[in-house]
Amino acid sequence: MPRLLVSIAIVLCASLAHADVWTFETPSENIQCAVGQDAGASDLSCTIIERSGAPALPRPADCQSDWGHEFFMTDKGAVRMLCQPVNQNRDGYDRAEYGVTGTFGGFICHSSKKGLECRNEVGHGFFLSRAKQRIF
């Protein structure tokens, strides 16, 4: 059953003592994210399963796996792209409907028909869509 990201954030913030990881995906199921929160810190990892165009950053010379699909940041750190196999599983994530903005951990994310944009407490973040990925 689809849920609004705002509802997820409210429910999870109220019960953080019981759960420190939660997940959400865009309605297309093409972008999936996991938020982890520990005492005083949080991290966000998002995967874009199918993408086109050039990756947001050039592939590192030592990357022998999938590149341009995995984005990671902490609540106060810069965005990093990870060199690792893409998980194609599209099950088990709560839905972040288009037009919804959610705040959780040290992040704010907005889901729209154009894509998913997430920022951390210090303004670092990313925009992800099938056609374009951008880090700021």
From TrEMBL:
Keywords, alphabetical: Signal
InterPro entries xref list: DUF6636 (IPR046576)
Pfam family of the protein (one): DUF6636
Signal sequence interval, chain numbering: 1-19
Protein name: CVNH domain-containing protein
Source species of the chain: Ruegeria conchae
